[in-house]
Amino acid sequence: MLAAQSNRKLSESATLGSVTKTDPCRLIVFNRDGTTVLLESGGAGYDLPLVSIPRFTRPAQEITTLVRRRWHIPSVLLFSNVSEEDAAPVYSAVLEAQVRTCAPPEGMDWFPVHHAISHLLRGKSRNVLECSYLKSANGMAGEEFFSRLGWLNHVQDWVRTVMRPLAMEPTDFQQLNGSETFSLIRF
Questions:
Q1: What's the CA gap between 53 and 23, in Å, rounded?
Q2: What is the pTM of this model?
């Protein structure tokens, strides 16, 4: 009996311990028009912002909440990727800010996308940004609806149309989960 309780406690603590671990995630935050991207300034130049997100959680919710709370930028996740940096996986998340313009967070700047690619420190970040921009802006053949810039505007217009006869108006949204093929939004 004691051995079973002890094993259960070890199992619970191992589970709890793994929940507090985080994964690095590079953020590619485009403005609402998809013309500029947010870069973080470092000592030697610029790079994509790097954040840590808790494992075994909903990445879309974690990332969009972090960007809203820390940087005061409401955003929606378009899609995410995984790449290898120094033999460890590094996630990247492509977001669309739901504002046309805003002051950049401290230590960051908005760059026109074509200039940002040349300002990035590492070749992998350049490639990730360029591929992400092409995918989100042009909607490459076969790409899904939720990976494209501007999709949330269409959904919000539809929600307003449905709610207007009820004398209601959506005031805000929260993305609970999402990918290029699915998005769960609470209005």
A1: 5
A2: 0.82
